[in-house]
Amino acid sequence: MEGADTIAAFIAEPVVGAASGALVPHKDYFKIIRQICEHYDILFIADEVMTGFGRTGSMFAIEDWGVVPDLICVAKGMSAGYSPLGGVIAKDEIYEVFKNGSGSFVHGHTYGGNPLSAAVAVAVVKTILEDNLVENSRTVGEYLLGQLQDKLSSFWYVGDVRGKGLMQGVEIVKNKNTKEPFPASLNIAEKLTVTLMKFGVIVYPGNGMADGENGDQFLLAPPLIITKAEVDDLVERMEAGFCEFEKTISQYK
Ligand SMILES: Cc1ncc(COP(=O)(O)O)c(C=O)c1O
Fold first, then answer.
1. Whether residue 96 sits in one domain with residue 53
2. How many angstroms does the Cα of residue 75 sit away from the middle of ligand 1?
3. Chosen domain end from 130, 164, 195
4. Of 45, 77, 134, 194, which residue is least crowded by CB atoms under 10 Å?
5. 3-class DSSP string for the chain
């Protein structure tokens, strides 16, 4: 509608985080996006602020779709949250434009290039590589997904259990078959989060994924060092929390 000339870039999270609870696109999705971007000379940006640095079982989630983006946004996992840090990874051909142009990329922040954050990130990345945490995220993540699907899918109010690596999501619905959501006014995701906290499980609730307003889900993103035994403990607590929540949610059926 707008014309390719008016579009600078396509940006997407390889696995959608807060907006829709670990929604994993079809295996061909990003290949098609990449082709469209190439055809129309549009940059493809992968927002890996949440998914990067092993979270989904690959160093960068987009790797699993077999495509290379032009730019990757990174942050959270790069310093494991211990010190604030964000960055952009660019292809050489993009970097060269700046290098051969003005020679600098004018984009300053008060704390840009912060040495403490940079040192933390170096230590974090070293640990991720030396302790095989990406592999742990993939294998223990697969186990976690299997356990969650096994234990939670049968609850009448669970619409979907999904994710990749150690980034998992659960969708809460009013009708399991039609996936009809609860009205946003009921704040179901927040209520469930409060219940789960009583069982020692911290999740990240989100709303609006069904139609922009309604639709409850939460994200579950345990540390990359989690073991299978700890997953068993987590899933047991989660199941107990879901049983307890059934008493609350049944009045809204
Ligand atoms: C996927 C994603 N992209 C971007 C951001 C924004 O990152 P920052 O706060 O580092 O600008 C977030 C923050 O939660 C995020 O989850």
1. yes
2. 7
3. 130
4. 194
5. CCCHHHCCEEEECCCECCCCCCECCCCCHHHHHHHHHHHHCCEEEEECCCCCCCCCCCCCHHHHHCCCCCEEEECHHHHCCCCCCCEEEECHHHHHHHHHCCCCCCCCCCCCCCHHHHHHHHHHHHHHHHCCHHHHHHHHHHHHHHHHHHHHCCCCCEEEEEEECCEEEEEECCCCCCCCCCCHHHCHHHHHHHHHHHCCCCCEEEECCCCCCCCEEEEECCCCCCCHHHHHHHHHHHHHHHHHHHHHHHHHC
In the reported structure, the alpha carbon of residue 50 is separated from the centroid of ligand 1 by a whole-number distance in angstroms of 7
The residue whose C-alpha atom lies closest to atom 16 belonging to ligand 1 is 50
Which residues have CB under 6 Å of ligand 1? 13, 17-18, 47, 49-50, 75, 86
Question: Over the stretch 87-143, which tens digit does the pLDDT of each residue have?
Answer: 999 999 999 999 999 998 888 889 888 999 999 999 999 999 999 999 999 999 999
224 in the same domain as 119: no
Task: Mark the ranges of the chain whose per-residue pLDDT is less than 50.
Answer: none
Q: Give the pLDDT confidence score for residue 162 in this predicted structure.
A: 98
Residue-range definition of the domain harbouring residue 149: 133-252
Do 180 and 72 belong together in one domain?
A: no
- Output the domain CATH number for residue 198: 3.90.1150.10
Take atom 7 of ligand 1 and give the residue whose Cα is closest.
49
In this structure, which residue's CA is closest to atom 12 in ligand 1? 49
Ligand 1 center to 77 CA (angstroms): 11
Task: Determine the distance separating the centroid of ligand 1 and the alpha carbon of 46, expressed in angstroms.
Answer: 12
Domain end point (choices 93, 113, 130): 130
Kindly state whether residues 51 and 150 are assigned to the same domain.
no
